[in-house]
């Protein structure tokens, strides 16, 4: 199974890839592998089985092509797509039960350039492939902010065409009962939005939640912390359940 970690810049993709991978290694007998598809990162907490930086880095592209950081990331996505056969072959050779794939800093690079959808399309042909969409707990604490984060997750699912589960990361920093209840019950999230908003904003946020209820691979959002390790077992359950229920979305 391939598990692709996607989320906004700094949401905790790299930390969760590492923590979740280590948790699976310690608590199950399954073989895991780590893949880094972020050419812009400097430090990684895990040892890669495949590292895109072995082929190019954002820094190199910036110098060579006289580009700024975002332009270089876009160029990096194009180069990644060209390497797709190498990446897919490497993943197939690993023969791991869980292949954890870390993606570039800004999620729009992986999701909205063609590299991400193309890679997912090929990965899902050889093995079950799922996206873990990471919501940054620090920027999503009200019903409305959660609804807008969920809208990004839905857009990600639409682009990548694979089952997508939502996690709220950094739970060590954002624990409260309202969030707990909203994440386990979309109807309660709607009740909170009714209280927080009025007019068009309310209507829009409520529609996002309805879409999530209808389309999400799971009716719940698991809370995780890459610092304390909270939620790793629940995340594995969520990933497995969603794969069984959804299969391929195409
Ligand atoms: N408290 C807390 N901090 C976290 C958690 N996960 C990540 N962080 C912190 O958030 C920051 C960003 O984490 P990364 O794992 O690098 O996030 P990322 O999404 O890979 O970042 P980019 O690839 O640069 O977009 C770091 O300072 C992490 O230590 C968490 O669960 N709890
Ligand atoms: Mg990262």
Topology:
Blueprint: E1 2-7, H1 13-27, E2 32-36, E3 50-51, H2 58-65, H3 69-82, H4 84-94, E4 98-102, H5 107-112, H6 115-126, E5 129-136, H7 143-160, E6 164-169, H8 171-174, H9 177-184, H10 186-196, H11 199-215, E7 222-223, H12 232-246
Parallel strand pairs: 1-4, 1-5, 2-3, 2-4, 5-6, 6-7
Helix pairs in contact: 1-12, 2-3, 3-6, 7-10, 7-11, 9-10, 10-11
Bound molecules: guanosine-5'-triphosphate and magnesium ion.
Magnesium ion (MG) binds at residues 13-14, 38, 41, 102, 105.
What does this protein structure show overall?
With 250 residues, the chain is an alpha/beta fold. It has one domain: Rossmann fold, CATH 3.40.50.300. Helices cover 56% and strands 14% of the residues. It has twelve helices and seven strands. It has helices spanning 13-27, 58-65, 69-82, 84-94, 107-112, 115-126, 143-160, 171-174, 177-184, 186-196, 199-215, 232-246, and strands spanning 2-7, 32-36, 50-51, 98-102, 129-136, 164-169, 222-223. It has a seven-stranded parallel beta sheet, with helices on both faces. Helix 3 runs parallel beside helix 6 and helix 9 crosses helix 10 (186-196). The longest helix is centred in the middle third of the chain and has 18 residues, at 143-160. The protein is globular and about 50 Å long. It binds guanosine-5'-triphosphate and magnesium ion. Magnesium ion binds at residues 13-14, 38, 41, 102, 105.
């Amino acid at each position: 199974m391939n598990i692709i970690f996607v989320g906004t810049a700094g949401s905790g993709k790299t930390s969760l890839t590492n923590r979740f991978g280590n948790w699976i290694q310690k608590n199950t007998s399954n073989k895991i592998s780590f893949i880094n598809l972020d050419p812009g990162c400097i430090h990684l907490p895990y040892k890669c089985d495949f590292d895109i930086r072995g082929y190019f880095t954002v820094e190199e592209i910036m110098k060579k092509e006289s580009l700024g950081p975002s332009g270089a990331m876009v160029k990096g996505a194009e180069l990644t797509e060209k390497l797709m056969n190498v990446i897919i072959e490497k993943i197939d050779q690993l023969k791991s039960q869980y292949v954890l794939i870390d993606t570039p800093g800004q999620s729009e690079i992986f999701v909205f350039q063609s590299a991400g959808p193309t890679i997912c399309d090929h990965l899902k042909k050889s093995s079950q492939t799922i996206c873990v969409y990471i919501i940054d707990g620090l920027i999503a604490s009200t019903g409305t902010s959660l609804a807008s984060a969920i809208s990004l997750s839905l857009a990600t699912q639409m682009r990548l065409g694979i089952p997508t589960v939502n996690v709220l990361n950094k739970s060590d920093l954002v624990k409260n009962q309202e969030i707990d209840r909203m994440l386990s019950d979309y109807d309660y999230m709607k009740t909170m939005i009714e209280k927080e908003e009025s007019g068009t904003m309310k209507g829009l946020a409520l529609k996002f939640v309805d879409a999530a209820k209808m389309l999400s691979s799971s009716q719940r959002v698991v809370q995780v912390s890459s610092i304390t390790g909270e939620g790793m077992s629940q995340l594995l359950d969520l990933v497995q359940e969603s794969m069984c229920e959804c299969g391929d979305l195409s």
